Every structure is written in structure tokens, then in C-alpha cells.
Amino acid sequence: MRGARPPKLPTNRPVSKDVYMSRFSKLTLVCLLSLTAMTPLSAQTPAAGPLPEMATVEQAWKRGDFVTVRRDLEHLAKESGSALAQYRYGQVLLEGRGGPRDLNGAVQWLQQAVAQDHLEATTLLARVYLSASEDQRNPAAAAALLARSAARGDREAQYYLALLSSAGDGLIKDEAAAVNWLLAAAEQDHVAAQYALSRAYARGAGTAEDAAKALLWLNRAAEAGHSEAQFYLALTYERGQGVDQNPASALRWYRASAESGFILAQRILGTRYMLGDGVEQNFEEALRWLTSAAKAGEPGAMSNLGYIYATGNGVPVDNTAAAAWYARAAEAGVGGAMLALGQFYETGNGVPQDTAKALALYQQAAAQDRPGATQRLVEMTLSGAVQDLLAPHQMVPWMASAAGEDGENRAKALAWLEASAADNIRPAQTALALLWLQQGEDTEAAAALLIQAATAGDPQAQLRLGQLFTTGSGVALDYVQAHSWLNIAAASGAAEAAKHRDVVAQLMTFEQIAEAQTAARDFFDSASVLPSLDSQ
What is the pLDDT of residue 201? Predict the structure, then answer.
């Protein structure tokens, strides 16, 4: 499509080790016992009686009689030497059907089938080696087995070999080879390979970047039911990236992804029904999808459920349920949930009233720059609600923020800051001085405050004071004092100070630098150096 932007497919989603490993564990292997401590096949007691037919085994499998399946496959594997029976029996032992899981026995029988070049057994044994516990895992052996199966056209082996090639796990890292194996598997309708191939084309990994091919394989995977592919195809239509923007198609794919169990799609779909965003508002559907995502651990869905129960939109107001969902979302790091839960604790809605917990939650929300959190902290400070919970210097950051911005509490916050500075609260002195300097007010008074705070040991005051002496703002220009204070600030932990000090040093003589260094040492030795405003 001319002029259309290429689709921004999931090119920067690093795969964690846990997710990477899960791709090799569809059989939910818990561990792989030592392969050197197995009971020899000859030591096992063969089943008695005539050999069963494989058709009889299949009938038992269909009716769910896995005890019979296990018994008959054991008999066939031991007595007939059939590679198919050995493979099927190894699979049964691996899955724990008709009896306990027996990983050692499974590996033995799969090895017997592999020795007879059984294709499926070769791939399955490779996956066993990859799914083993860390000390038993053998990616090199797995890669060798997968290479055998992949060369014979097994699409599952081709996919896993591509993953190993891309990661350099068990063989030399080779992104180009990975793309070739993905393409081979994808052309055989291996859905996970189709999605992985779309990502490779989207980010140009192992192949030339190709937005059209990326979109082609993303569509193929989505149409085949790959939930993550469906989600990213929805995003593609929603944003119009490489395709015409199409809200209806986006909604269709969000719904398909949600139905497939992809929790981000469930949260987005539930939120849209909650807000009536692109769909008719429907709180029943909102609750359905948000609850599903929240129970799966999606933080945004938890927070949205808290909002629904707190506001009573489509459900009776339930502050207890709201607080519970907000608490889970806050624990997961959602700033809005922290703010809402703080208000619950402050007022005692749905939870016992607890000012200390409210304060802590507001602080966490403010650290995320959540709108409204700083305002609540300011109001609690001005009301005196936190005076027994925090020292004054801990309140300075949000009071300084309020004093520097337009708002109903600006004048009160400024008055609080001035009173705290007058009480020799060091951070308040620094904050007030910086505020005056920012607003271009009384630079000499600001410098005087910085000298007090710097002398008392405030690193930010020391840094800013060094900068003032460098430029002569509010104080006389003095490179010795500038270098001294910047040196002190750097030693006190102000990250920028060393860089500024080194710049100033280029303007100084060796004698001046030595004098500044002596002043800095004297400061730390006695903390008695107090530079004057008229220092030359």
C-alpha cells in the first residue's frame, strides 16, 4: 500500500529464560532424572500372553483406558521391538498416562526408537533433553537429534531447531539458519513458527527487514489461532501500521485473542466495554474480560476492576472488593491503584482507616508522577495529619513541588517552605533557594540560603552553590570557592558535581586549584569553612 507505514510488529519483546524454556515443555516435564542411573531394559519383566494388536491399543486410547494402553504398549515394545510401540510407550511413560510418570523409562524407550530412526521419537527425545533440569539439560544432544528430524521434514523439529539456532543454544548462533528453519516449518503450517517468522521479518533478524512478509506471516498465524499473533494484528489495524486503519478489524482480532486466552487482549477488551470505547458500553462484558485477565495476574485489569466496584458502574458499589483489587494492582506497581487505595485507607472505605498506609501509598504514587498524589500529600501535610509520621525534611519534596506550581495550595506550600527554612530544615533551605533562583527572585537571598544548607552538608546545595560561584550569580565570581564547593558536592554524592568541577579547573591556575582542594579538605576535617558573599 503506497504511503502506508510498515507495521510495527513485536520487534523488541525480549524472551525471558523462563518463556524460552517453556517452549520446550509442552509435556510439562518437571525434571529429568539421571540418564546414567536407569534400570536396564533386560531387568524389566515383560508382559505375559500373546502380543496385542496396535489397533487394540488405539481403541483403548480412544475410550480413555490408559491402564490398558500402558500395559499393552509395554508388551509390544518389549516383545516386538517395534519402533512405533517403543515411541508410543515412551510417550505414555513421559506423560504419566495409566500410571506414574517414569522419565528414566521414557528416555530408555525413546532412545530405542531413535536407534531405529523413528522420526517422532527423535524429536520428542530432543525436547526431553531441552526440558530437563539445569544440571541434566543437554542442548547439544538435542540439537543433533533435531537436525536429523528437521532434515527429514519434521516441522516441530524445524521450529525448535530454529529457536536453538537463533539463541546459539547447543550450536553456533546463526540467525539466517534460524529463519530458514522457521520458513520450512511455517510453510508446513506450524503456527508458532509462522508467528516467530513474522517477528524475524519485522525486525530484520537473519533476513532483510520486510514489512509485507512480516504482515503476511502474522496474518497466517493469527488466522490459525495464535493468540499473541492475533493481539499484535489487532494493534496493527488499530494503529494503521502498514495497513489501512480499521477499528472493526482491530476489535475482531482483540476479541479473538481474548477468547484464545491472551490476557493483554482480555484487559484491553474489558476496558473498552467498561468505557464504551469503540463498542457499546457493556459492564457485563467488561466484568467478564477484566475478571479473567485480573485472575491471570494482569495489573491493569485488577485496577480497572477496583474502579468498577468503587464507582458502582454496572454493579452495586462494593468498597471491600474494590479495595482488594486495588491492593493487588498497587502491589503490582500500578500508580493509579496506589492513589485510589491510599484514599480508601485515608477515609476508611472498604478497609480500616490507616493514615500511615495512606501516606505510604501516596508517596509511592507520587514517585511515579501520578496526578493527584502530590496534592494529597500536600493536603495531608498542611492539615497536620502526617506530623507524627514523618520528619519535616521528608515532606519537603512535595511541598516544594506545590510551591513552584500554580494551584490552590501554592501559597500555603510556599509559606510552609519558608517557615521550615527559617527553622533550619536543610532540604527546605535548598528547595526554597532553588525555587527563588528558578523564578529569578532575590538571588542574593537564595545564595545565602544555599550557603547555610551547603555548610550543613546538603549535597544539592553544595552543587548549586559551586555553580553560582562559577557564574557570579548572587555571589562574587570566585573559581576557588566554585571548585571547592563542587569538589565537596562530588565527594558528598552529587553526580553532576565532578563534571562541573573539572570544567572550572580548566580556568584556574595550579595554585588556585591547590587552594580549593585545601579548602575542601578543611571542610571535611572541621566542617567550619563558611565562604563569604564578598569573597574575591
Answer: 96
pTM of the entire predicted model: 0.75
The values of phi and psi at residue 319, to 5°, are: -65, -30
List of long-range contacts for 264-269, beta carbons under 8 Å, 24+ apart: 264/231, 264/293, 264/298, 265/227, 265/230, 265/231, 265/234, 266/290, 266/292, 266/293, 266/296, 266/298, 266/301, 267/293, 267/298, 267/300, 267/301, 267/304
- CA distances 93 to 69, 89, 310, 516, Å, are 11, 6, 51, 78
| Residues 6+ away with beta carbon under 8 Å from 110 | 86, 87, 90, 91, 94, 121, 124, 125, 128
Place of cell 476489535: 251
How many angstroms separate the CA atoms of 202 and 219, rounded? 13
Taking phi first (over 0 means left), then psi (-120 to 50 degrees means alpha), and beta for anything else, what does residue 153 get?
left
3-state secondary structure 417-460: HHHHHHCCCHHHHHHHHHHHHHCCCCHHHHHHHHHHHHHCCCHH
List, in order, residues 6 or more apart from 303 with CB less than 8 Å away. 325, 326, 329, 334, 336, 337, 340
Three-class HEC string of 30-49: CCCCCHHHCCCHHHCCCCCC
In-domain check, residue 146: no
Does residue 487 form part of some domain?
Answer: yes
Q: Which three cell numbers stand for residue 244?
A: 489501512
pLDDT in tens, 266-317: 999 999 999 999 899 999 999 999 999 999 999 999 999 999 999 998 889 9
User: How far is C-alpha 233 from the chain's CA centre?
Assistant: 21
Domain range for 510 is 454-526
Nearest to 241 by CA among 73, 4, 83, 484: 4
Q: Give the three-class secondary structure for 224.
A: coil
Longest dimension (CA), the chain: 110
Task: Please report whether residue 78 resides in a domain.
Answer: no
Closest Cα to residue 517, out of 530, 501, 532, 496? 501
Q: How many domains does the chain have?
A: 1
| 499 domain-assigned | yes
Measure the CA–CA gap between 79 and 54, rounded to whole angstroms.
13
Q: Using CA of residue 485, residue 487, residue 488, residue 493, what is the dihedral sign?
A: positive
CA distance 49 to 527: 97
